[in-house]
Amino acid sequence: MECYDVGYNIGMIRDKGEVQKLNNSSCKKPAMACPSTYKTFSLALQALVVLEKQSGKCSSGDIAAHLHTDATLLRRILKALAHEQIIEAREGRDGGYRLRKSADSISLADVYSALQIHTTIADSMLDAARENCVGGQMKNAFSDILDEIEESTLQVLKSYTIANIVEKIM
Asked: What is the H or E stretch that residue 57 is in?
């Protein structure tokens, strides 16, 4: 069963080849309209490395070209990072993006949290547990396990910064 975001109020769910409409509570949309996946996490980290290496403002088009990725997706990612004060965004002719703070003070946990990666994974797992006798018990078990996973993941990610990644690739 897969959940698709197809607008602000209506979602679609694919179950055994059938497509059904869902209300907004069944198909959650991330706060910044940025897909919260490991791909977006990777692109966010790569974009932050590019910004660190450029030591100045960079347009989303330049970053997207450098990463060989879609500029629209990248702008959504950058918007989420700007919203969380990780980068600074300037619009207009002289606009672009730059790091708001030093690369050694931006942890991978900051980026992971800004993109709400864990929330999306947790929601998917909990949504998959149906409301039946086993599903209710599974939701409780999943919830405890997911809390432990998030705590462990954030602990590891806190020990690495954007500067660490830049050092590893230089």
From this structure: none
